[in-house]
C-alpha cells in the first residue's frame, strides 16, 4: 500500500490517502481490557465499518539478530504466557514490548476481525497498519492473525481465541 505524496492533487478537503502523515487513527475510541486467558486485549468503544484504518503498530525497529536475542532472553523469564510484541517489517522488525502504542494489545484470533498491511508513507518510510477486515461492533475485541506476524521461530502455542474454527493450538 502506498500513501499519497505531499504534492497530492486532492488538496481541497484534504487527501484521504495520507493516513500516516495525517496521523488519522481511532486510538481515542479504543480501550485496553483484561481477558480471562489471553492477558490484555484491545476493544473498540464504537462501531467500526469494514476496511477502516484503525492505527499503526508502533515500536522500536530492530534487526533479525536483535529479535532472536530478545526472544531467547524473554523466553527465560516468561513462565506461563507467550507474549508477541514483534512484527515483521521487510528485513526488520517492529518491537512494541517497551516502546509501542496501544495497538500492541491486539490479540491473535483464528477468525480475526482486523488485518495488518504494510504501508509506505509519503516520506517513503514503511509502516505496519491495522485495518478492519469486517464490520466490528462497539465493545468487540480487536484481533488479527499472528500468521501475518511472521514468528518463524515459534512452532505452536495454545490458542484461547474462542472462535468457532479454533483448534486450540496455533501452528505457525
UniProtKB/TrEMBL annotation:
Annotated compartments: Chromosome; Nucleus
InterPro entries registered for this protein in UniProt: Post-SET_dom, SET2_Histone-Lys_MeTrsfase, SET_dom, SET_dom_sf
Gene3D superfamilies per record: SET domain
A GO BP entry: methylation
Keyword terms of this UniProt record: Chromosome, Methyltransferase, Nucleus, S-adenosyl-L-methionine, Transferase
Recorded superkingdom: Eukaryota
Gene Ontology MF terms in the entry: methyltransferase activity
Domain Post-SET, first and last residues per copy: 155-171
Pfam family, one: SET
The keyword Disulfide bond appears for this protein: no
Domain SET: 28-147
GO cellular component term, pick one: chromosome
Name this polypeptide is given: SET domain-containing protein
Origin organism lineage: Eukaryota, Metazoa, Ecdysozoa, Nematoda, Chromadorea
Amino acid at each position: 500500500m502506498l500513501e499519497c505524496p505531499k504534492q497530492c492533487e486532492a488538496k481541497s478537503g484534504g487527501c484521504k490517502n495520507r493516513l500516516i502523515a495525517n496521523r488519522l487513527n481511532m486510538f481515542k475510541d479504543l480501550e485496553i481490557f483484561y481477558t480471562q486467558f489471553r492477558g490484555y486485549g484491545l476493544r473498540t468503544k464504537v462501531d467500526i465499518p469494514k476496511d477502516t484504518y484503525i492505527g499503526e503498530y508502533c515500536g522500536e525497529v530492530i534487526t533479525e539478530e536483535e529479535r532472536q536475542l530478545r526472544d531467547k532472553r524473554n523466553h527465560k523469564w516468561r513462565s506461563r504466557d507467550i507474549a508477541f510484541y514483534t512484527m515483521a517489517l521487510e528485513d526488520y522488525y517492529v518491537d512494541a514490548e517497551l516502546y509501542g502504542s496501544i495497538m500492541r494489545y491486539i490479540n491473535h484470533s483464528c477468525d480475526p476481525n482486523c488485518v495488518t498491511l504494510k504501508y509506505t508513507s509519503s516520506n517513503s518510510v514503511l509502516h505496519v497498519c491495522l485495518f478492519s477486515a469486517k464490520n466490528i461492533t462497539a465493545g468487540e475485541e480487536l484481533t488479527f492473525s499472528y500468521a501475518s506476524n511472521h514468528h518463524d521461530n515459534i512452532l505452536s502455542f495454545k490458542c484461547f481465541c474462542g472462535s468457532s474454527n479454533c483448534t486450540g493450538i496455533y501452528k505457525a
